[in-house]
Amino acid sequence: MSTSQPLTIRHSEMKDAPDLIALDELVWNERTAPASLSWKSRGEFLRNSPPGSQLVAIAQGVLCGYVGFRPPTLLASNRHVLEINMAVHPDYHRKGIGTALMNSIKDIAAAEGIRKLSLRVLSCNTEALMFYEKCDFAIEGRLHEEFYIAGQFVDEVLMAYFI
To answer: What positions does the domain N-acetyltransferase occupy (predicted)?
Structure first.
C-alpha cells in the first residue's frame, strides 16, 4: 500500500454485509477453501459473521479485505485463543492490506489478553501459506487428505501465532 492511499482498518458494521458477502463469494473457491462459499441470505451471513466479528480494510472507500475472529469453542479454558480467517480482494493483493490486517488483529488480541491466534489453510493454497509464514505463524499440525477437491486429496494445515 503506498502512502498516498490511506488504509482504514475498523471493526465490521452492519452496513458492510453486502461487501463482505461479495468478497467471500469472490475469494473462497476450490483453491482456497474446501468448497465455494455462497451465502443463502444476508441473515445467514450475519448469523455466522455478526457485526464486530471482523476487522475490515477500507482503501479509497472500497472494502478490500477482512480478518474474521472468534473463539474456537465456548469453553472458559479456551478463551485465550482466537481462530481467524482472512480474505483480501485479488485486486489488492501484494499492497500491504493483509499485513496491515494481520498486524491489527495481533495488536487487538494482545490488548485483550489473547495468547494465541490459530487458523486453517489448505495445503494447495501456497500463496496463503507463504503469507502466514511471513506473518510468523508456525505450522502446528496437518490433517492429511482431509478434503477431496477437484479430483485430488488436499491436506488442511493448522497454523498458530503466539502473542
So the answer is: 7-163
